[in-house]
Amino acid sequence: MAVTNKRRPTIHDVARASGVSRGTVSRALNGDPYVSTAALAAVKRAVAETGYVVNRAARSLVTQRTGTVVMVLSEPQEKLFEDPNFSVLLRVATRRLAQRDVALVMMVAGDDGDRERVIRYLRGGHADGVLLLSAHSGDPLLAELDGLSIPAVACGAVLGREGVIPYAAADDREGARQMTQYLVDQGRRKIATITGPLDTPGGLNRLEGFCDVLGRKAVKKLIAHGDYSRHSGETAMAELLDRTPDLDAVFVGSDLMAAGALAVLRARGRRVPEDVAVGGFDDSAIASSTHPRLTTVRQPLEQVATETVRLLLELIDGAETVTPVVLPTELVTRESA
User: Fold this and answer.
1) How far apart are the C-alpha atoms of 228 and 79, rounded to whole Å?
2) Are the CB atoms for 236 and 229 separated by under 8 Å?
């Protein structure tokens, strides 16, 4: 029995079904603001009826755009799945870009080989723009981007390139001040901190906010460093307890590291918050699942992702400059402090 090959609907089919010209259909599908409301509605209805799907390859020949944005995570691949912040940023960015019919490609640039693959992909003209996630100062990828003439925006400022690469971010320094001042107001006298990597804005700016409040009391033995992973929070907490057994509070630079710190405190027989108060940063889902639940700083990640996408789309659409966006944080008190 012969099987008839069903023909893919074309733009001519949409024009016939909508009762407008092929040119009007094309302009409507490409977002031309001068297409009338009635014509646009007719085209949308005809697209739904015919099952027409835009041929991206054909469209890119006309628009000189790929309809694709690359999100580059400058971390090892396993962090994409461990840190809940990345899933929020990825989900929101994907949804916002889809509203403009732009696809998101996720690429990891955690080592030299990964970075080279990202650069090859971008040099090949496969993307209209780049969203940088967890960019570290001094990353060789940043220098490569300079020579590609492709719009790039960062989730969080890129240290040393704040005036070069636009960004949207939470106010990390002020959020750290809020948490540290709260611990001081709770009567804590020997307050430690676990930072993120100091070549990232979250690591450096949160440490600066901690020092803003404590001044000379922010001594080196009360400062330990992590990499935003749970394991690094465990290691840093153990170091702090070994150096300063009588510490009575710790501000941890992320909820995930704070979960690791809580595990070590529990293993060492320290009660939270009676013996040691613990504060985190993010207000991710982790904060509500720890025991005790985590007092933390809420950063508006969904807004950060939304603003990052907005800035990038403005650059793709031809804007010469855009203004970075810094969003306020909020202290969220629970049982850990």
Assistant:
1) 9
2) no
pLDDT band at 110; cut points 50, 70, 90: confident
Q: How much is the mean pLDDT over the chain?
A: 90
For residues 229 and 263, state if they share a domain. Answer: yes
Are 184 and 287 part of one and the same domain?
yes
Which burial class, exposed, middle or buried, applies to 257 when counting CB atoms under 10 A from its CB (0-12, 13-18, 19+)?
A: buried
Which structure tokens are listed for 176? 């750290």
pLDDT at residue 151, rounded to an integer: 92
Residue 311 has pLDDT above 90, yes or no: yes
Together in a domain, 205 and 271: yes
Question: Which residue range forms the structural domain that includes residue 310?
Answer: 68-169+302-326
337: helix, strand or coil: coil
Tokens describing residue 253: 């630079």
Specify the pTM: 0.79
Where residue 251 sits, what CATH number does that domain have? 3.40.50.2300
- Tell me the C-alpha distance between 271 and 255, whole Å: 18
**Percent above pLDDT 90 for the chain:** 67
Same domain membership, residue 240 and residue 212: yes
163, 178: one domain: no
Q: Assess whether 217 and 127 both reside in one domain.
A: no
Q: What is the pLDDT of residues 163-196, one digit of tens each?
A: 899 999 999 999 999 999 999 999 999 999 999 9
Q: Which of 168, 200, 201 is nearest to 326 (CA)?
A: 168
In a domain, 332, yes or no: no
Render 13-70 in DSSP notation, one character per residue.
HHHHHHTS-HHHHHHHHTT-TTS-HHHHHHHHHHHHHHT----HHHHHHHHS--SEEE
